[in-house]
Amino acid sequence: MKRFVKYIIFALIAVLFIGTFLFLYRKSRPEVLRYEELTATVMNIDRATVVTGKVEPRNEVNVKPQINGIIAELYKEAGQQVKEGEVIAKLRVIPDMQSLSSAQSRVRLSEINLRQAQTNYDREKALYDKQLVSAEEYDQVSQALQQAKEEYAGAKDALEVIRDGVSSTNATGSSTLVRSTITGLILDIPVKVGNSVIQANTMNDGTTVATVADMSDLIFDGNVDETEVGSLSEGTPMKITIGALPDYHSEATLEYISPKAVENNGAKQFEIKAALQGSSSYTIRSGYSANAEIVLETVENVLSIPESALEFDGDRTFVMRKGDDGKYVRTEVTTGLSDGVNIEIKSGLSEGDIVRGQLIIDTEE
Q1: How far is CA 73 from each of CA 162, 174, 206, rounded to the nearest angstrom?
Q2: Nearest Cα to 40, choosing from 319, 327, 258?
Q3: Which of the residues 11, 280, 289, 341 has the least number of beta carbons within 10 Å of its own beta carbon?
Q4: How many C-beta atoms lie closer than 10 Å to residue 236's C-beta?
């Protein structure tokens, strides 16, 4: 048994010794330096920027009530289509007591005036029938009666509108019915049955009953940095991608650049908007995050190399060009437009020249 344990210990020591020897041997092997070889070629170079933003409908409106009240019924839900003038909700009126009292007083007063006008008319007509008064006097009394009737009817309508939100003579124009002001898709209905709502006035924006938008006319809304806005102009083409729709790509046209900058995290940025082309293959929802790729500058058929091959010495730029003898020669070049990967070479190289790229470290076999 002791002999067996000795064999195991000797085996472990041998394995440890051999492993250490191999490790030190590999560490002592010389490193071979190799460089990536890059060829100067003619190509087109685009300097582009990517602007983050969102997709939203061009025409989005908040539908608000014309009177104060309580939501009695909701006829629509978010996600449903609605036409202009279609009823979205119905209100139960909460009348203002001062206005209600004034309207009731007006009805009572107009009723008194109507009774008096009717009495005067009956008396004048009896005299007119006996030819005891002139036609002119009779016409004046008749006109006064008609005015009193109109005043009474108007007072009743005003009372019904204040008390019930609708008058019997104009039921179709009821202010208790909240109607859509545009044709489109209902994006949101932030109220529920039983919620109190108020109309818009000079002191309050009013309660939004529904948000409706025309989803057939979408725009990209984003912000571009002040260093790049000078290269943009209305009509510039853009490519739009949406994060929630990986396969979605759309062409767009820049149509608005804000004349005023906004500060965002300490940077000056300008709002831009672009019209998207419609697509029936995708369901695009309002508020989707999106990116817009904009080409700021383009040069065509220019000599270029990968930007990683450049070396800098102060204000001068160099590359290591491979000579006919296979050795690299430090060569000064003049650069132009860069797309972040490739850069234009204006002078110093010719098409087909090979330059030294990044270092590749290999171990000698």
Answers
A1: 19, 14, 19
A2: 319
A3: 280
A4: 17
Q: Token match 């590999």: residue?
A: 26
| CA–CA distance, 199 with 69 (Å, rounded to integer) | 9
For the chain, 365 residues long, the average pLDDT of each consecutive 10-residue run is: 62 68 60 75 90 92 88 92 93 75 84 87 82 83 87 80 64 74 94 89 88 92 90 89 88 91 87 83 88 89 91 90 87 89 91 84 51
Q: Which residues of 240-258 are buried (b: 16+ CB within 10 A; e: fewer)?
A: bbbeebeebebebebeeee
* CA nearest to 274, candidates 260, 257, 287, 259: 257
Beta bridge partners of 34: 360
How far is 297 from 227, CA to CA, in rounded Å? 13
Torsion of CA 36, 39, 41, 46, to 10 degrees: 20
Three-class SS state of 67 = coil
Start-to-end CA distance of the chain, whole Å, equals 45
Supply the DSSP symbol for 284. Answer: P
- Rounded Cα gap, residues 276 and 293, in angstroms: 13
Are the CB atoms for 289 and 54 separated by under 8 Å?
yes
Residue pair 74/202 in contact (Cβ under 8 Å)? The answer is no
Which residues are within 8 A (CB) of 332 and not within 5 positions of it... i.e. 6 or more apart? Answer: 316, 317, 318, 348
